[in-house]
Amino acid sequence: MEATRMNASMKTAKGARLGLRPSVYRRAGRVVGRMQARRQVSQKHEARSVAASSNTGKVVNAAVAAAPPAVSEEVIDKCINAIRFLSIDGVEAANSGHPGLPMGCAPMSYVLWNEVMKHNPANTKWINRDRFILSAGHGSMLVYSLLHLTGYNLPIEELKNFRQWGSKCAGHPENFVTDGVEVTTGPLGAGICNAVGFAMMEKHLAARFNKPDCEIIDNYTYCIMGDGCNMEGMSNEACSLAGHWGLGKLIAFYDDNSISIDGHTDISFTEDVSARYEALGWHVLHVQNGNTDVDAIRKAIAEAKAVTDKPTLIKVTTIIGYGSPNKADSHDVHGAALGADEVQATRDNLKWDLPPFEIPSEVYSAMRDSCQEKGAAFEAEWNATMATYTSKYPEEAAEFKKFFLDGEQPANWADVLPTFTPEDSGVATRIHSQTMLNAVASVFPTFMGGSADLAPSNMTLMKAFGDFQKDTPAERNVRFGVREHGMGSIANGMALYGANIIPYCATFFIFTDYMRAAMRLAALSEIGTIFVMTHDSIGLGEDGPTHQPVEHLASFRAMPNIYTFRPADGNETAGAYKIAVESRKTPSLMVCSRQGLPNLEASSIDNVAKGAYVVHETNSSPDVIVIGTGSEVAIAMEGAKKVEAEGKSVRVISMPCWEIFEAQSDSYKESILPSSVTARVSIEAGSTFGWEKFVGTGGKSIGVDTFGASAPGPLLYEKFGITADAVAAACKEVM
């Protein structure tokens, strides 16, 4: 459509496809040659894929395109170009951003948002809406343009302030800033993993609540991903699971534009992406001309929806920066403003004669007015279905509304968490974690998760439930396999889906190195994912330094908006779970021991909510204060007794969560750590980094500031000086 209206004087056989000036014909020729070679590979693959799929009858190859919209092709052209030029103008106004992706992805995005998706701009939290995730989050102006044009609460003034202080149009999409943005993306690959979590939740909720005569959950999850997303390993982890689980309501668009920051992707990325996804168990389609062939996009979506037992990858070959005469199909248009001259050349090329941020009224009519009207009708229809469901299935409806729609917490729910006394046998806090996890699962039907192939070690199985699998999607134990990074991002997607799911995921604490980016995004996105981490220190023993965390506690305590819990016994583990379950805007990190620990006399669920508290003191006027966490609290108490035997007064503090303690009132913090007592010692089997904020310049920190070693855990504690004698000696030194 756009191509038919380009300036004829600018066209040649090769240049017409790109809309290029004569000055770049030679470069265009080289580009076309590369793309033709890639297209031949893709066509061969597609022929293989269609032949195989036809034999199984799972793909409707003759599927017709979606019903022709009641909008003329001329207006559709204008809508697509409106998306392009709002994106161009936003980046230009900021002199910062990524215009190329929105320019290339505008046609597929128009079809999705204006013709295909069920969404209601007036209610961004409607539970059965279709979800859209821009995994290639650098192209954020695409999402902002779509939100504005389809009638969401994103005024044009916000787009004019793209990437500026206080704007709702941040540099990358942020779910906590912009209403209508489903997830925070930017780190490439994370969004497609979130999308897997979304599609997983749709499948799970549909299995739990839908009835043959009344379906209340049947939404699709759509995602646009780029070459960079496919290069990042986490996307393969999550997409492998999507294929394994048969997530038929997940449709991903691969923006195949062959450009990255360094230049053309053929310098580093030449694999057959379609073949890879086919091997992962996906249904694969190819739109060869995503720049102008809107009907092919419609048909591909229809074919994707016809396949219900597999996720679908639609590879859409596009030109990055489509319409830009001098920068299309180059890295120059990937991550920088076009510049005034090129913006004008692009306007001339695409016959867009409007000033920046001005949109034709017919575009608003075709997109904003239409989507608002259809959205209200979609939700009204669903409300009627929900009313029927409530009358026919009142018990299921009550559960669905209470927990999944309203996110209610049962009154006095924490009563299910057991408590412990010193007379109870001491076990590892990973065992206590399993006890708490199962207790939570008994009262929260929204509690769901699993481990990265370490369930018997992490102790994370919910005993009353089976495995979430392709054929048993109503179950709640998730087998993530050895895929930490993908697991963390899928769990975040489970939370962000919007059904008040409380997700948890687990691995060894050392392997947070594989998934730290996902944990950081949970904190940034303000979602309460629970990360259960076991084997927390050199105390795990013989596996050695490859598996022994040292710097990890310090690194997570440096991360904003995450609770890092290191419980010392059963009561502290229960208290940590109570806070984690109730904290829906802050993720929690449970750092649990492999070795058994005694239950403390002064510990309690309520004390954990203070972050730190006194577990032992000689009297109210201590000569020295000893602070410990986790497995070292008992060692601190043993060391204190040695100091007391010499006539000194000692206070021992358990500090299960730094972040919560630091949020307490100044008076409470002073009551625990009086400024008058400067003789202080900390003990923790990890890096001493950061402890100076509590022990001060006159204090001493006992810890592990080198890598560990392979030996039995008790011997390692002795060799590294994590002992009661070391505590006593340190106390004498600082007093």
Automatic annotation (TrEMBL):
Which co-factor is required?
Co(2+); thiamine diphosphate; Mg(2+)
Which Enzyme Commission number(s) are listed? 2.2.1.1
Q: Which domain of life is it from?
A: Eukaryota
In terms of Gene3D superfamilies, this protein maps to: 3.40.50.920, 3.40.50.970
Record-annotated site: Important for catalytic activity: H98, H334
Which keywords belong to this entry? Magnesium, Metal-binding, Thiamine pyrophosphate, Transferase
The residues that the entry says bind thiamine diphosphate are: H138, G186, P187, L188, G228, N257, H334, F511
Q: Which GO terms describe its molecular function?
A: metal ion binding; transketolase activity
Where does the Transketolase-like pyrimidine-binding domain start and stop, copy by copy?
Answer: 427-599
Which named protein is this?
transketolase
Native organism taxonomy: Eukaryota, Viridiplantae, Chlorophyta, Chloropicophyceae, Chloropicales
